Amino acid sequence: GAVNRLFEITVATGKVRDLLAKTSMCLSPFEAGTGDYAIAPDGKDILFCRPRNPVRTQEDSDIYALDVKTCSAKRWLFEDGYSFSGPSYSPDGKRVACVRVKNRSKPEHDTLWIVNRKSPEKREQWLAKWDRSVGSYGGAVLRWSCDSSNLLFAGDSDGYVNIFWIKPDQTAPQVLVKGGTI
Predict the structure, then answer these.
(1) Predicted confidence (pLDDT) at residue 121 exceeds the cutoff of 70
(2) Per-residue pLDDT tens digits for 52-110
């Protein structure tokens, strides 16, 4: 009966607040990790991943935006036939990187999407022609450079999990660290 939720803890007082208490929502029923949510640099909102149907978790999942002040959440990024995961705010707070995964029909690579924070319908796909998936083993942890211009991510390549570095104008990422499993 336990579900994954988001809490705010005030360090000075120890006060705990359930940020999803005013909603019927929870995070993914699987072990939630840092790839399942992202806190905005200004602290005003949190993006989190949630399956559309909590019983059929292998189908479409969306990214929701939670207003930290009001504890209200709204569906922020979604597309029929796809799941979005791994949200990551750019340090300047203007964009969000995430992974888009095709569901059900023919398989395709997990792709990297860059989304305008204020207008999620404005989005672009990076690495559109790359022949690998962003992330590894069904998940991705995306990290921005300090100047919000480039992204780091782990990805499978020829049986290894490497750390890749991508700039917006590149068609393929550079291997930053070649590994066994990173």
Answers:
(1) yes
(2) 876 665 668 899 999 999 999 999 999 988 888 899 999 999 999 999 888 766 567 78
Instruction: For residue 86, give every residue at least 6 positions away whose Cβ sits within 8 Å of its Cβ, in sequence order, or none.
Output: 35, 49, 97, 98, 99, 135, 139, 140, 141, 142
Cβ–Cβ < 8 Å for 172, 131: no
Burial grade of 87 (CB within 10 A; 0-12, 13-18, 19 or more): buried
Reported as a pLDDT band with limits 50, 70 and 90, residue 38 is very high
**Average model confidence (pLDDT) across the chain:** 86
The number of C-alpha atoms within 13 Å of 41 and in the hemisphere containing its C-beta is 13
3-state secondary structure 7-33: EEECCCCCCEEECCCCCCCCCCCCCCC
Question: How many other CB atoms are found less than 10 A from the CB of residue 76?
Answer: 19
Sorted by sequence, the CB contacts under 8 Å of residue 115 that are 6+ apart come out as: 77, 95, 96, 97, 98, 122, 123
Q: Are strands 61-67 and 72-77 parallel, antiparallel or unpaired?
A: antiparallel
SS3 content of the chain, % helix, strand, coil (to 5): 0, 45, 55
What pTM does this model have? 0.88
